[in-house]
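hey so i finally got around to running the thing on that chain from the lab meeting. sorry it took forever, my laptop kept dying and i had to restart like 3 times. anyway pasting the input first so we r on the same page abt which one it is
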Amino acid sequence: MEVSQLLELYKQGQRNFSNVDLSNALLRNVSLIGIDLRGATLNKVDLSSANLIDANLTGANLIETNLRGAMLRGTNFSDADLSWSNLTWSNSSNSKFIRANLSLTNFSGANLIEADFTGSFMNGCNLRGTNLRSAIFKSLQSCVDGEFSGVRNLDDQTRLYLCAIASGTHPFTKNDSRQTLGCPI
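ok and heres what got predicted. didnt touch it at all, straight out
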């Protein structure tokens, strides 16, 4: 589907774009509130500064997708592949990343208040400077080589859980994961 067609159909009130392929599309600054992109292929799409509040991206492929500064409040990324994606400075509060592949995903400076990471795969994930107030980290599949420097509002119980499973060093910052969490030696 062409971007112009999607935008026109959205403007006309259509919200269901499940399984669409928009790889490499330029969708910077668009407003697609409540869009349904379940199972969509959005690899290498530029969605920087886009408004995707309450979007459904369950099972979508967002490999190397740029979501820098995007409004993602309440968006569902469950079972999605966000590996190598850029979510720096995004507002991802109340978003669901349940069972998502977040391998080498960059969340630096993002607002992740009440985000749910249950069962996600977080190898090499960069959470530097994020706000993690009431974020949920349970039953993670993996948390190797993560970066947690300067995270804010991480509760003690969650920090201890992450310390129990974290290991390695972040591939780009070269910081030790457990040290960035402030884990006891």
